[in-house]
Write a structure and sequence with these properties.
Layout: E1 10-20, E2 26-37, E3 43-44, H1 47-58, E4 66-70
Parallel strand pairs: 2-4
Antiparallel strand pairs: 1-2, 2-3
């Protein structure tokens, strides 16, 4: 698979990514599996993984400013 930004090769890795859930709530998903570019660090999330991300974000505690959730596939 190639990067949509620079055309370099993507490789499978795990990373921590922030998601803004509400105006005042940010959720960090730890060890999220992504495809990341070797050159520019652009990343892509596979559809099945993103479906799980959406489920996790729906259950986030929106009364907190920051929540950290470990991603478990």
């Amino acid at each position: 698979m190639r990067c949509r930004v620079c055309g370099s090769k993507l490789h499978s890795t795990r990373t921590d990514l922030p998601f803004k859930v509400t105006e005042r709530t940010i959720v960090i998903l730890k060890q999220l599996p992504v495809m990341q570019c070797d050159r520019c660090s652009e990343y892509s999330i596979e559809d099945a993984v993103f479906a799980r991300v959406e489920d996790l974000l729906r259950t986030a505690d929106t009364s907190a400013e920051l929540e950290i959730i470990p991603f478990a596939a």
